[in-house]
């Protein structure tokens, strides 16, 4: 590069250098090359997407959840598979290490994770031969005719899923909210059966419906009172559910008991199995049920001066909805 000397300036040559430099800048701008840095756009903050297909026994699965977790196990992106079993997940700027987690609900219940460092084609291939059966028979109280039951499953630890991703198994999305259960399925017969990924599972069987206090339901609300394993042992409950190690095919028996309301603020459980933890869990579920009912109940206009009959306050017994 040539520099202007004092003699050039005196002779007017420097004016030529200046004109040439300005012309070069104008040409660069015309070609879209600005000497200044271009402001970052929204597209710049997202890298190329993660993408792939979720299959079971070679068949694409629609409706599976695929989550992207960072190195700390926090969910940073969520997608759901389409008709062809495919998913696409945008990678946040700066992502360098984490894992992808695929969650299945049927025909297999469970999840699998794989470590990732950068966006790439990443598929999940589940096989029925790698799962185990979790089945059970349900015994209702004497004289009670079952109309339906809710069976809820929640994994606490699964083969193929690191401990750091345990909370992501029940994450709703990228926020702090968690699902009450991984899967809740309604059955009309007193038996259930699932194919699950081996691991530690929580099982809850109940029937909880919010009824008007003055209406006597044809079928009482029910909850599991006792679970019996094939060897005859009876595991203890934790917050109304049973925690089971499911490593091989497992068939259990679940005995139900009726839930009664004492007319005031609490729930009483019939039988010897009703502990403080179970009553607290049922109260929380009933509070949730009442909130949902209030959210969808249509507004009723009251005629001026009309008296409104108020029902006594009740406790909580509604079951938190899971994925059906």
Unreliable stretches (pLDDT < 50, length at least 5) are: 1-11, 17-22, 25-46, 262-279, 295-324
Given the C-alpha coordinates, what overall shape results? elongated
What class do helices, strands and sheet pairing give?
Answer: mainly beta
Provide a count of the helices. 3
The radius of gyration is 31 Å
Which sequence of SSEs, written as H and E, runs from N to C?
A: HHEEEEEEEEEEEEEEEEEEH
Q: What is the average of the pLDDT values?
A: 76
Can you walk through the features of this model?
It is a single chain. The protein is mainly beta and 324 residues long. 14% of the residues lie in helices and 36% in strands. The strands form three sheets. Strands 9, 10, 11, 12, 13, 14, 15, 16, 17 and 18 form a ten-stranded mixed sheet that branches. Strands 1, 2, 5 and 8 form a four-stranded mixed sheet that branches. The radius of gyration is 31 Å and the shape is elongated. The termini are far apart.
Topology (SSEs and partners):
Elements: H1 6-11, H2 13-30, E1 46-56, E2 59-60, E3 65-70, E4 75-80, E5 86-92, E6 98-104, E7 110-116, E8 124-126, E9 132-139, E10 149-158, E11 183-187, E12 191-196, E13 199-207, E14 222-228, E15 237-238, E16 241-246, E17 250-261, E18 267-269, H3 276-296
Parallel strand pairs: 1-8, 9-17
Antiparallel strand pairs: 1-2, 1-5, 3-4, 3-6, 6-7, 9-12, 10-11, 10-13, 13-14, 13-16, 14-17, 15-16, 17-18
């Amino acid at each position: 590069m040539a520099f202007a000397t004092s003699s050039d300036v005196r002779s007017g040559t420097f004016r030529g250098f200046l004109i040439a430099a300005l012309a070069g800048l104008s040409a660069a701008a015309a070609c879209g090359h600005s000497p200044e840095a271009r402001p970052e756009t929204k597209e710049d903050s997202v890298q190329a997407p993660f993408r792939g297909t979720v299959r079971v026994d070679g068949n694409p699965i629609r409706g599976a959840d695929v989550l992207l977790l960072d190195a700390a196990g926090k969910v940073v992106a969520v997608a759901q598979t389409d008709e062809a079993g495919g998913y696409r997940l945008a990678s946040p700027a700066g992502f360098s290490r984490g894992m992808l987690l695929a969650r299945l609900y049927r025909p297999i219940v469970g999840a699998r994770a794989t470590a990732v460092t950068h966006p790439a084609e990443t598929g999940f291939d589940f096989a029925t031969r790698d799962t185990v059966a979790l089945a059970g028979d349900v015994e209702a109280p004497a004289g009670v005719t079952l109309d339906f039951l809710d069976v809820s499953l929640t994994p606490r630890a699964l083969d193929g899923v690191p401990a750091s991703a345990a909370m992501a198994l029940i994450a709703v999305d990228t926020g702090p909210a968690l699902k009450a259960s991984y899967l809740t399925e309604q059955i009309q017969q007193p038996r259930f059966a699932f194919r699950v990924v081996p691991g530690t599972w929580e099982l809850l069987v109940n029937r909880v419906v919010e009824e008007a206090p003055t209406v006597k339901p044809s079928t009482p609300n029910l909850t599991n009172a006792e679970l019996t394993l094939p060897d005859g042992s009876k595991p203890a409950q934790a917050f109304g559910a049973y925690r089971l190690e499911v490593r091989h095919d497992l068939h259990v028996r679940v005995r139900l008991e009726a839930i009664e309301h004492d007319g005031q603020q609490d729930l009483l459980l019939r039988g010897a199995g009703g502990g403080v933890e179970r009553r607290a869990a049922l109260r929380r579920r009933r509070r949730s049920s009442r909130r949902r009912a209030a959210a969808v109940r249509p507004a009723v206009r009251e005629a001026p001066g009309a008296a409104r009959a108020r029902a006594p306050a009740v406790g909580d017994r509604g079951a938190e909805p899971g994925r059906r």
